[in-house]
Structures are given as C-alpha cells and as structure tokens.
Amino acid sequence: MQAPSFRLPDQTGRMRSLSDYKGKWVVLYFYPKDNTPGCTKEACSFRDSSADFKNLGVIILGVSKDAIASHKKFADKYRLNFPILSDESKKTIQAYHAWGMKKFMGREFEGVKRTTTIIGPDGTIKKIYENVNPLIHAGQILADIKTLS
Fold this sequence. Notes:
Blueprint: E1 7-9, E2 15-17, E3 25-30, H1 37-48, H2 50-55, E4 58-64, H3 68-77, E5 84-86, H4 91-95, E6 99-104, E7 107-112, E8 115-119, E9 125-129, H5 137-148
Parallel strand pairs: 3-4, 4-5
Antiparallel strand pairs: 1-2, 3-8, 6-7, 8-9
C-alpha cells in the first residue's frame, strides 16, 4: 500500500514532505504529546539509536499535533537529532490511522495513538506498529528493517 503523502513543518519551521525522502527507508512515528514520560523515552531512544539508523540509511520522523514552538522546546531540551513534525490539523495523523479512542485512568477520549509506520524506499508501507512500548521500540524497528531490506 502506498504511504499517504504529507507536507508538515518541523521544529525549526522547515517544511518536510514524504517525497523529500524518496529512495530511503523512513520511520514515521506518531506520539501523543511533547514532554510526557512515554513520549520523552521514545524520542530519546530514537535519538540514542540514530547512528544505527543512519548506518542503515533510515530517516526518523516524529509526528504529533503539538505546535512548532512546543516541538522546538522539546527537541532542544532533549537534544533530538531528527525532525519532529507538527500536525495541528491532524490530517496526516488521521491518514496514517494514528488518531482514535484511547483510555487513560478509566477515562476514554480521542487522541494520538502511539503508532509507527515503516515506509520503504519505494514509498510503500512495509510495517505498522500499534500500541508501541517506547522503551524497546527503536530496537524492534532496527531489527525489522534489517530483515525487510
């Protein structure tokens, strides 16, 4: 299946499109909110594994509905070394089925679901991860990309 195209600003305001990464593996991960415990662990895990991803020619892109200013603070605070994209309209989040009902402390609400999509160099979706464990996720993806490529 072809990955939905997108054009979103990163934490510096620079516009990023899926087409910018044609011919490369892309890890597009969706997370609920900047500066929350699980999202911070996940982002830092990708940051700490970035050399391994780079060696495999893989681009990491984070996406949430937070504003550019929030992303900038988050990226600066944790020295994130990859783009995090702002999707305040939720169009890309919805296109990748990363928006829906969630449960927290017995309460149900709509929000960004922690999901990741691996997009191959040909622009097709190779794998989707739902209900991600932020502590081990980067390692899972590295192993799977080695198998997929």
